[in-house]
Design a protein that fits this description.
Elements (H helix, E strand, L loop, with lengths): L7 H12 L10 E10 L4 E8 L2 H6 L7 E6 L3 E6 L10 E6 L3 H6 L7 E8 L12 E7 L3 H13 L7 E7 L8 H9 L3 E6 L9 E2 L2 H4 L10 E6 L2 H13 L7 E4 L15 E2 L2 E2 L6 E3 L10
Bound molecules: flavin-adenine dinucleotide and FE2/S2 (inorganic) cluster (FES).
GO biological process, one term: pyrimidine nucleotide biosynthetic process
GO molecular function: 2 iron, 2 sulfur cluster binding; flavin adenine dinucleotide binding; metal ion binding; oxidoreductase activity
Protein name: Hydrogenase
Length: 295
């Protein structure tokens, strides 16, 4: 197994302990039941899931930023981030954009159907390290899914975090996800600024790039930490702008996507420079990603 972390043995033991929540065999999927399906938009559904095995439900835990390897019979596996926070109760949520064979089959699922899941996989957002800071989220498209997990976590542990600001961009108003949550977040004092590339007659918020929303907020390099997720091109511009606004690369966190097979640092499919995205990431600080051209 390729190991690039400075404390691989400690990390391996911790990861093995996490997997042991579900099964002794890290390649063996566990069956989860889809309890509810929430339509976010034409292309995106949120699956509210719980384990068939009640003991799995009781012991299962994860941290925002981690993901599950999701499988469907004869269609293989795909990595999908948790869009829920472990503070939201038992089970978990996966928010899935229809992309290819597996995700299209997931879009045909009905409540009560089953999916296979392995995990939790990956290195999460450093939620403890972020305590005491203001949190600035910048999400684009389906990239808002892993960020939703952190927003929910921070709201459940409100006293540990400062101001929370969410900047979220989509192509059109119909492409926005998590509309209900955005309303709830606003009522809980979260500043939410939305932006679309193309508005419609009912759209009253920003039209343009999500980076332009950064001009509408006060960024304080000393106390703000940014969490960014979206398409590669969006991330490149957002990360560059955050640095221009004075944020240190070590204060900016992002989660990367690469094609994956094993999800547990063995096959080498997901390499990014000298790292494995499934194992060393998918969450990285910008200080770990000097070459933004490769995002
Ligand atoms: C850590 C991680 C977390 C993810 N979280 C989510 C999530 O929360 N919700 C969600 O909808 N998707 C997520 N994805 C992306 C998802 O895994 C892919 O869209 C998935 O491969 C789709 O499987 P499929 O069989 O339906 O499509 P495929 O047949 O595998 O692919 C369909 C199209 O998408 C492209 N593609 C596949 N995988 C990727 C990738 N990793 N990066 C860029 N392009 C890709 C393919 O080249 C192809 O053009 C995540 C990916 C990673 C690596
Ligand atoms: S090493 Fe196999 S998917 Fe990352």
């Amino acid at each position: 197994m390729k190991q690039t972390n400075s404390t691989p043995h400690r990390k391996n033991r911790e990861r093995a302990r996490q997997f042991a929540q579900m099964s002794d065999n890290i390649y063996l999927p566990c069956q989860a039941r889809v309890d509810e399906i929430i339509r976010e938009n034409d292309q995106v559904l949120t699956f509210v899931c719980s384990f068939e095995d009640v003991l799995c439900n009781k012991d299962f835990s994860y941290v925002p930023g981690q993901f599950m390897m999701v499988s469907m019979p004869h269609l293989g596996e795909a990595p999908i981030s948790f869009s829920s926070s472990p503070t939201e109760g038992t089970g978990f949520r996966l928010t899935v954009r229809r992309a290819g064979r597996l995700t299209s089959a997931m879009h045909e699922l009905k409540p009560g159907d089953q999916i296979g899941v392995r995990g939790p996989c990956g290195t999460p957002f450093p939620v403890r390290e972020l305590e005491g800071s203001n949190l600035l989220f910048v999400g684009g498209g389906i990239g808002m899914a892993p960020l939703r997990s952190v927003v929910q976590y921070a709201l459940a542990n409100r006293e540990r975090y400062g101001d929370i600001t969410v900047l979220y961009g989509a192509r059109t108003p119909a492409d926005l996800c998590f509309r209900k949550e955005i309303g709830l977040w606003r009522r809980q004092g979260v500043t939410c600024l939305l932006s679309v590339d193309h508005g419609d007659e009912n759209w009253t918020e920003h039209v343009g790039l999500v980076t332009e929303l950064l001009d509408q907020v006060q960024v304080s390099p000393a106390s703000d930490r940014a969490l960014v997720c979206g398409p590669g091109i969006m991330m490149r511009f957002v990360l560059q702008k955050l640095v221009t606004l004075g944020l240190e690369p070590g204060s900016i966190w992002t989660t990367l996507e690469r094609h994956m097979k094993c999800g547990v640092g063995i096959c080498g499919h997901c390499h990014f420079e000298d790292r494995l995205v499934c194992w060393d990431g998918p969450v990285f600080s910008m200080a770990q990603l000097p070459d933004l051209e490769n995002l």
